[in-house]
Write a structure and sequence with these properties.
Elements lengths: L3 H6 L4 H19 L3 H22 L3 H9 L8 E10 L2 E7 L5 E2 L2 E3 L6 H13 L1 E13 L11 E13 L7 E7 L15 H12 L5 E2 L1
Parallel strand pairs: 1-6, 5-8
Antiparallel strand pairs: 1-2, 1-4, 2-3, 2-7, 5-6
Helix pairs in contact: 2-3, 3-4
Length: about 210
């Protein structure tokens, strides 16, 4: 079951909340700006947001400005999908090469994807297993952090069924393994998979529960 401790653990630092809000105001303002005066004001907000993140996250200011400058249109959260894949009651995890931590396979949804097709593709690419998405376990506020994950994101976790394939590593993953609920990996990969996602996945497998959402 979800715990208050886990929910508290993923709360954003205030500086990142402020920086995200300022960046979104800047992006939306630039999209609707009607003259150079308005554009200059919203560009200044972009710079302030980048300065906050650079100060607290130890990321180069120029890199953040470049990332922000590439964002156009109305600012909305990004979408991350994860596949909860079981075999004999054990949950599939992959080890990320980036940080050595374990996570349920998944990744960002590409433009043009449906969420279900995105999770099926990501599971195959990262683990070697072909799956079909059966149901949505939960929709979560992902609260991602890090140099390339400074944007607000939602996470959708799907319960998936294996239809073919075998365990296979990838350019992004160094190990593929199944874990029981009593012997889960000690090191999780950042915000990709949190204990609450794992608990909800096992609950969805063992009993009929409504979709979880934040």
């Amino acid at each position: 079951m979800n715990t208050n401790d886990d929910l508290q653990e993923v709360l954003l630092p205030r500086w990142l909340e402020w920086a995200r809000e300022i960046q979104s105001i800047s992006q939306i303002g630039l999209h609707y700006a009607e003259n150079n005066y308005q554009k200059k004001r919203y560009l200044r907000l972009l710079e302030i947001s980048a300065q906050i993140i650079s100060e607290y996250a130890d990321v180069a200011y120029e890199d953040i400005v470049n990332i922000f400058s590439q964002q156009v249109g109305y600012a909305t959260p990004r979408i991350d999908v994860r596949g909860a894949v079981f075999q004999a009651g054990n949950l599939l995890f992959v080890r990320e090469r980036m940080d050595g931590g374990w996570t349920m396979p998944g990744g960002w949804v590409d433009v043009g994807d449906t969420p279900s097709s995105a999770v099926e593709r990501e599971v195959f690419e990262e683990s070697g297993f072909e799956v079909t998405a059966r149901k949505v376990i939960g929709v979560y506020d992902a609260n991602r952090t890090g140099p390339l994950e400074i944007f607000h994101a939602f996470k959708i976790v799907f319960l998936c069924d294996i239809v073919a394939g075998e365990a296979s590593i990838s350019d992004e993953t160094s190990e593929v393994a199944f874990f029981s609920q009593s012997e889960l990996p000690n090191s999780l990969s950042g915000e990709r998979t949190r204990p609450r996602h794992i608990d909800d996945a096992f609950d969805a497998l063992s009993k009929e529960i409504p979709t979880v959402f934040d």
